[in-house]
TrEMBL record:
Domain of life (superkingdom): Eukaryota
Active-site residues (renumbered): 178
Binding site for an alpha-L-fucosyl-(1->2)-beta-D-galactosyl derivative: 108, 178
GO CC terms: Golgi apparatus; membrane; vesicle
GO BP terms: carbohydrate metabolic process
Residues that, per the record, bind Mn(2+): 86, 88
Pfam family, one: Glyco_transf_6
Family, similarity comment: Belongs to the glycosyltransferase 6 family.
Binding-site residues, UDP-N-acetyl-alpha-D-galactosamine: 86-88
Cofactor note: Binds 1 Mn(2+) ion per subunit.
Cross-referenced InterPro entries: Glyco_trans_6, Nucleotide-diphossugar_trans
Protein name as catalogued: Globoside alpha-1,3-N-acetylgalactosaminyltransferase 1 (FORS blood group)
Membrane topology reported for the UniProt record: Single-pass type II membrane protein
Length: 228
């Protein structure tokens, strides 16, 4: 996934939080593969060495734990707000402080127009990510969440605990950490819900109601980038 960093950072420099100070924290097990990109004054790139996990599902799941640990160790001293983002993404238009709030989630582009009973929430009651059939308002994407550092901390800690409990039972939620995220936001409402402009799937045709995308997926060859 290090191949996605260049485009992510170059487009972030054009569109993300322009005029504000920004720290980019890149989590990777391959620090030597992080390209050096010229950054604006007041912008910093910090590489955080992370363990290698055997499957893409575990890498994605473990983000909750890694982000939480790092909030405690350093982010809370260094920043006010955090956005936690997938790397296989690019910025395409302005993405600024209008997106900030105490706790922020984004509607998943695949389900913004879908009936609730089609949302891929975790449906097994044995899982900590379980969502009963009569619950849920939106289906959120796992590729972006954020907010005040303290709120993101609480959120990542709760998800991590749920993930570990599931692990002890030998199960993994339907969409890994995205399932735990969705469960959390049903019972702890985000103070801001971002529309599909802020999380768009660029491989899908744009519906007429979407005039522009701000943050969108980059196509990836699953076989080439994933170990499993
Ligand atoms: C658009 C969107 O909502 N995407 C979500 C979706 O699939 P995606 O297909 O977008 O998941 P993905 O393959 O992008 O993995 C999630 C993220 O984990 C990181 N990563 C993953 C594998 C790896 O070998 N190295 C690495 O760094 C990387 O930042 C990547 O962007 O479902 C996943 C469930 O687990 C996550 O919730 C994603 O956020
Ligand atoms: Mn992704």
């Amino acid at each position: 996934y290090t191949q996605f960093i260049k485009q992510f950072l170059e487009t972030a420099e054009k569109h993300f939080m322009k005029g504000y100070s920004v720290n980019y924290y890149i989590f990777t097990d391959k620090p030597e593969e992080v390209p050096s990109i010229p950054l604006q004054p007041g912008h910093n790139l910090i590489i955080i060495q992370s363990p290698k996990y055997p499957t893409w599902q575990e890498i994605s799941l473990r983000r909750m734990e890694i982000i939480g640990d790092n909030i405690k160790e350093r982010f809370q001293k260094e920043v006010d707000y955090l956005f936690c983002l997938d790397i296989d993404m690019q910025f395409q238009n302005h993405f600024g402080i209008e997106a900030l709030s105490e706790l922020v989630a984004a509607i998943h582009p695949g389900y913004y127009n879908a009936p609730r009973n089609s949302f891929p929430y975790e449906r097994r009651p044995i899982s900590e990510a379980y969502v009963p059939a009569d619950h849920g308002d939106f289906y959120y994407g796992g590729a972006i969440f954020g907010g005040l550092v303290s709120k993101v901390y609480e959120f990542t800690r709760t998800c991590k605990k749920g993930i570990l409990k599931d692990d002890a039972k030998g199960i993994q939620a339907a969409w890994q950490e995205e399932s735990h995220l969705n469960r959390y936001f049903i019972f702890n409402k985000p103070s801001k819900v971002l529309s599909i402009e802020y999380l768009w799937n660029d491989q899908a045709p744009k519906p007429p109601e979407l005039k522009l995308a701000r943050f969108a997926t980059v196509p990836k060859n699953h076989k080439a980038v994933r170990d499993n």
